[in-house]
Write a structure and sequence with these properties.
Keywords: Phosphoprotein. It holds the Pfam family RsbRD_N. InterPro entries: Bact_StressResp_Reg, RsbRD_N_dom, STAS_dom, STAS_dom_sf. This is STAS domain-containing protein. It is built from 10 helices and 5 strands; from the N terminus they run ααααααββαβαβαβα. It is an alpha/beta fold and 297 residues long. It has 2 domains: 156 residues, Globin-like; 115 residues, Transcription Regulator spoIIAA. It has a 5-stranded mixed sheet, sandwiched between helices. A hairpin with a 2-residue loop joins strand 1 and strand 2. Helix 1 crosses helix 6, helix 2 runs antiparallel to helix 3 and helix 5 packs antiparallel against helix 6. The mean pLDDT is 86.
Length: 297
């Protein structure tokens, strides 16, 4: 019976593919496929036409198994469509509608042109409906995979952008941290800091945690790993930005940072300069050159 349904489907698609395509495009428009402006009508029509042709060719092999070699081209097309829609910002509903909206046009065309063998037509409709369900799920899986990859890539880019290493003075670097410090971000922080220590030949690194909302035992461990790695590269670390609330939390948790800490970045910078034998002092009026004003360097 399944073989008969496949034959009916192939015959009807061969004979009425243009009619199916026209109704399918109309159905997609009614479902709002073009409202977002992310895809043009000509591109949508090309995708629909290509899918129908590949589906017809796959069914001509006498199988509904979407994992078979006969459906390889269909799977490739759906993978490309789902990936492009995920990248362009389509919603899951908009993506899966590309497949599921084909059901009604096929049912209508098969009902009108199915011929006298109603049982075979019914079987063809049922089998094709199940097939489209599987293809719709396959498209959704491809969409989700691409979205997850995009999210991971964006998180990595954000982590890299949110961990800049700044040169404050010759041999003195600052690493301002903002947000939660987890294991993955710690790795990015460590790599950026170590690379900067080597490139700048820095002997002191200030890790500022003013923008870190909370410091728990795990966060402290991540900080200590970064400090230890910097020490192996020959750089001493100073941690700044420990607010009163964070200090109380660390004491309550019994967290100990085996590193010099300062309340503010300015204090940490002054300490770093003193370690280099430098100091910051205000100019006396007698030291100011004649004609110097506040707007001059």
């Amino acid at each position: 019976m399944a073989q008969a349904g496949t034959q009916v489907t192939t015959q009807l698609l061969n004979a009425h593919e243009a009619e199916v395509l026209q109704q399918w495009l109309q159905q997609l428009k009614e479902d709002g496929a073009l409202q977002s402006g992310r895809i043009r009508e000509g591109e949508l029509q090309t995708q629909c036409s290509q899918f129908l042709r590949l589906l017809r060719d796959a069914l001509s092999g006498g199988t509904h198994d979407i994992d078979s070699s006969a459906f390889a081209a269909v799977r490739d097309l759906l993978a490309d469509i789902s990936a492009s829609r995920a990248t362009q910002g389509f919603s899951p509903r908009e993506t899966t509608l590309f497949i599921f909206s084909l059901k009604q046009p096929l049912f209508d065309v098969f009902t009108r042109h199915g011929g006298a063998d109603a049982q075979a037509t019914l079987q063809a409709n049922w089998s094709l409906g199940l097939l489209l369900d599987k293809l719709g799920l396959y498209t959704m899986e491809g969409y989700q995979k691409t979205r997850e990859e995009l999210i991971v890539r964006q998180q990595q880019e954000i982590a890299e952008l949110s961990t800049p290493v700044i040169k404050l003075w010759d041999g003195i670097l600052a690493l301002p941290l903002i947000g939660t410090l987890d294991s993955q971000r710690t790795q990015v922080v460590m790599e950026n800091l170590l690379e900067s220590i080597v490139q700048q030949s820095a002997g002191i690194a200030i890790i500022d945690i003013t923008g870190v909302p909370t410091v728990d035992t795990l966060t402290a461990q991540h900080l200590l790993k970064t400090v230890a790695a910097a020490r192996l590269m020959g750089a001493d670390c100073i941690i700044s930005g420990i607010r009163p609330q964070i200090a109380q939390t660390m004491v309550h948790l019994g967290v100990e940072l085996d590193v010099v800490s300062k309340a503010t970045l300015a204090d940490a910078f002054a300490l770093a300069l003193s370690r280099q034998g430098r100091t910051v002092a205000k100019r006396r009026a007698a030291d100011v050159p004649a004609g110097f004003n506040a707007h001059q360097g």
